[in-house]
Amino acid sequence: MTLDLPDIVFALARILLGGAFLVFGIRNIANLSSLTLALTARGMILPRLSAIIGVALQIVGGLLVAVGPFALIGGAALIVFLIFATVLFHNFWSYSGAERLTHLNATIMNLGLVGAFLLPIAAML
After folding, report:
1. Which of 13, 47, 69, 109 is most open to solvent, judged by the fewest CB atoms within 10 Å of its CB?
2. What is the pLDDT of residues 25-81, one digit of tens each?
3. Of the candidates 80, 109, 106, 110, which has an alpha carbon nearest to the alpha carbon of residue 94?
4. 90 contact partners, CB below 8 Å, separation of at least 6
5. What is the pLDDT of residues 101-124, one digit of tens each?
6. What CA–CA distance (Å, rounded) separates 31 from 75?
């Protein structure tokens, strides 16, 4: 099997995109208590379990995207994570002024990331 430039660029993109979420997830292990409190404040059912699932989605999804053969599953898992994270933590419609703009920007960024995760999914179909 020979690798051409598009294959190399695509592999690098998967490693960077998936690797970032792998790092975020590993870092969030130390933040489980604060994530649990934040989810509790937002009325989430089973907030500790929800926080653990979110961190697991980041770690496992990131690893699956970065490694490659299961990028479709990892990309789908991270899209689900991003949708929930956006609705729970970046609900810009609940804010006003500068705070609204901050959350709107985070929402737009997360939508861009959803688009980025659709690329390895499309490549695997």
Report:
1. 69
2. 999 999 999 999 999 999 999 999 999 999 999 999 999 999 988 999 999 999 999
3. 106
4. 103, 104, 106, 107, 110
5. 999 999 999 999 999 999 989 988
6. 23
